[in-house]
C-alpha cells in the first residue's frame, strides 16, 4: 500500500503517519531524510526519535537517491520535503528552468516507485508549503513547484492520501 500524508508544519502529520505504520505488522523502517546540518536540525531529529520510541521502528538514513535504500516491510519516509531539498542542493543538480525541474521531479518520483517496489507498504510524509501566498526567491519558488509536482504525482499513484490539520486527519483519497 502506498500512502501519502500531507499537512502544515507541526500539524501532527508525522505522528499520524507513525501510528498508521505501527498498525501494519512485520518490519517497520523509519527512512529519515533530514540531514543533521545544525543545532535546530539535530533537535528536530531527536524529537522525532523520542516520538517514535517504543513503536517498533528501525531507523535508516537516506538523504538522496531514496530508490537505492535497502529496505523491506513497512517504510515510513520522513519526509519528501527533505528529499527534495537534498536533491536540489546536492551540488550535482542545477535547476535553472522548467526542464530541469521536470527532470528532477521525474527522478525523485522514479526513486519513490523503486522504493515502493522494495517494501510492502510505503508511507510518505510531505509538507504543505503551498498556502502562505508570500513571494520568495527563485530557488525557493523552484522548491515549492517541485514539491507540488511530486505531491500530485505521488497522490495519483497512492492508495490513500491523508491531510492532517491541527492533529486531525482527513482522508482525501
What does this structure look like?
Pathway: Cofactor biosynthesis; adenosylcobalamin biosynthesis; adenosylcobalamin from cob(II)yrinate a,c-diamide: step 6/7; Cofactor biosynthesis; adenosylcobalamin biosynthesis; adenosylcobalamin from cob(II)yrinate a,c-diamide: step 5/7. One of its GO terms (biological process) is cobalamin biosynthetic process. Belongs to the CobU/CobP family. The chain is α/β, with parallel strands linked by helices. The protein is built from five helices and seven strands; from the N terminus they run βαβαββααβαββ. It has helices at 13-22, 39-52, 80-88, 98-117, 138-157, and strands spanning 2-7, 28-32, 57-61, 74-78, 121-127, 160-165, 168-171. The chain has a seven-stranded mixed β-sheet with strand order 3-2-4-5-1-6-7, with helices on both faces.
Termini separation comes to 13 Å
Q: Report the biggest beta sheet as strand number plus sense, adding barrel if it closes.
A: 7 strands, mixed
Name the poorly predicted regions: none
What is the strand content? 15-25%
- Apparent shape: globular
Keywords: ATP-binding, Cobalamin biosynthesis, GTP-binding, Kinase, Nucleotide-binding, Nucleotidyltransferase, Transferase
Active site: 48
Binding site for GTP: 7-14, 49-52, 61, 78
InterPro entries: CobU/CobP, P-loop_NTPase
Amino acid at each position: 500500500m502506498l500512502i501519502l500524508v500531507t499537512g502544515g508544519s507541526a500539524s501532527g502529520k508525522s505522528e499520524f503517519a507513525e501510528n498508521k505504520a505501527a498498525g501494519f505488522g512485520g518490519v517497520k523502517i523509519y527512512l529519515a531524510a533530514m540531514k543533521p546540518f545544525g543545532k535546530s536540525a539535530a533537535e528536530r531529529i531527536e524529537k522525532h526519535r523520542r516520538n517514535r520510541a517504543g513503536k517498533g521502528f528501525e531507523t535508516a538514513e537516506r538523504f538522496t537517491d531514496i530508490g537505492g535504500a535497502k529496505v523491506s516491510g513497512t517504510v515510513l519516509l520522513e519526509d519528501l520535503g527533505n528529499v527534495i531539498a537534498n536533491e536540489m542542493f546536492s551540488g550535482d543538480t542545477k535547476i535553472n528552468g522548467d526542464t530541469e525541474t521536470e527532470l528532477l521531479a521525474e527522478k525523485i518520483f522514479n526513486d519513490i516507485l523503486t522504493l515502493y517496489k522494495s517494501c510492502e507498504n510505503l508511507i510518505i510524509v510531505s509538507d504543505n508549503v503551498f498556502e502562505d501566498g508570500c513571494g520568495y526567491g527563485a530557488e525557493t519558488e523552484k522548491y515549492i513547484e517541485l514539491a507540488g509536482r511530486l505531491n500530485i504525482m505521488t497522490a495519483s499513484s497512492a492508495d490513500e492520501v491523508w491531510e492532517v490539520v491541527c492533529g486531525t486527519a482527513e482522508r482525501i483519497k
